[in-house]
Amino acid sequence: MNADEHYMSRCLQLATLGAGTVAPNPMVGAVLVYNGTIIGEGYHQKFGEAHAEINCLASVKEEDRKFIKNSVLYISLEPCAHFGKTPPCVDSIISNNIPHVVIACRDRFEAVNGKGVQKLLSAGIKVTEQVLASQALQVNKRFFTFNEQKRPYVILKWAQSKDGYIAATNAAPAKISNEITDKLVHKWRSEEAAILVGTQTALVDNPSLTTRLWMGKNPVRIVIDLNLRLPAHLKLFDGRSKTILINLLKDDQKPNLQWVKIDLSKPVLTSLLEALKNQGLSSLLVEGGAKLLQSFIQLGLWDEARVITNEALQLHSGLRAPDLNNFRQFDEQKILSDKIQLFQNLSSIHHLGIF
Ligand SMILES: NC(=O)c1ccc[n+]([C@@H]2O[C@H](COP(=O)([O-])OP(=O)(O)OC[C@H]3O[C@@H](n4cnc5c(N)ncnc54)[C@H](OP(=O)(O)O)[C@@H]3O)[C@@H](O)[C@H]2O)c1
């Protein structure tokens, strides 16, 4: 790793601290380096609040401020050049007389794309691009998918027995993953804007779909209930966090409960993703059941899958887990007897340009 990559990797570390709290904005980190020493660090912490560059500049100690005009600013994404919820970051960079800016990748969001770089160059600032670009695109896969594919980034997740079942024959919810993996799953929940289950899972499992085992926010709960047959006593309707019912019958709203009507002119999942896009929800964790997961796979409407296999559990019969054998596994980890495999759908994520 050269020096630029070293500082950029710190930017990317900082950027991910905004997971779950900045969406649908991108996660961005920035560091200010004077003569081989980091004198400022910042990241975009919350949607609507200051961007990474501004937090980074604000973090510089009073006694170090004299070095700013001779420092290099590293940012994991091209700085904005437009007025959004906050003023343009390029203006702050220019007014602070920073002579050199290093960015990982351009912000392909229409209002920025190249304009940030152009404004810096016009002000006589040196700009270095494409440092750890593919890692930076990966960090902001949700943001780029939301803006380019006009739909949330879709993550499929399920737990299965060693012999490939997600539920036992008696249809009672089977405990598959261990307690540590459960915590990890709740961390995953805290990082996504929305979480979805099918009608049958809502009925049989009665899940809360909240982030109870990890700090952070609850995702918006989404359930497909086309004919509004789910009973009101389900935990999904307990008001603890927002739930959206995707249905064919009505549009309506109550505190923490929303009915969104779709029609059948398109596949249900296409309409569902459109509805979520319209609500500004930039990522979706799909937690089952089998029919719903399989529908996403059949339509190619998924980006990533996280499959937990309890290698110490055999169910012998039951509901078969979806099959991802033809897809690319890009990572694997073990938590006690749970194997966690991560898959990517290359045909849906190729627009990111990661590979
Ligand atoms: N191990 C795990 O990770 C895990 C996770 C979740 C669930 N589960 C288990 O999975 C079982 C439920 O799974 P399941 O496959 O029977 O049902 P499911 O996928 O939860 O729900 C399927 C139902 O959702 C509705 N739906 C509407 N549009 C759909 C579409 N485009 N694609 C799919 N579904 C659509 C349909 O209900 P209508 O027919 O009413 O329209 C369909 O019958 C339970 O036993 C649960 O315990 C396991």
Brief sketch in words of this structure:
The chain is built from eleven helices and 17 strands. It is α/β, with parallel strands linked by helices. It has two domains: 137 residues, 3-Layer(aba) Sandwich (Cytidine Deaminase, domain 2); 204 residues, Dihydrofolate Reductase, subunit A, CATH 3.40.430.
Q: Key terms for this structure?
A:
alpha/beta; 5-stranded mixed β-sheet; 11 helices; 2 domains; elongated; 10-stranded mixed β-sheet; 355 residues; Cytidine Deaminase, domain 2; binds NADP nicotinamide-adenine-dinucleotide phosphate; Dihydrofolate Reductase, subunit A
Give the strand order, joined by hyphens, for the main sheet. 11-12-10-9-8-13-6-14-17-16
Question: Mean of residue pLDDT?
Answer: 95
Are any ligands bound, and if so which?
NADP nicotinamide-adenine-dinucleotide phosphate
In CATH, the topology of the largest domain is named: Dihydrofolate Reductase, subunit A
The topology string of helices and strands comes to HEEHEHEHEHHEEHEHEEEEHEHEEEEH
CATH superfamily membership of the largest domain: Dihydrofolate Reductase, subunit A
Give the percentage of residues in beta strands.
15-25%
Q: What Rg do the Cα atoms give?
A: 22 Å
First-residue to last-residue Cα separation:
19 Å
The dominant shape is elongated
Total domain modules: 2
Number of helices: 11
What is the number of beta strands? 17
Q: List the uncertain runs.
A: none
Helix content: 25-40%
What is the CATH architecture descriptor of the largest domain? 3-Layer(aba) Sandwich
CATH first level of the largest domain: which class?
Alpha Beta
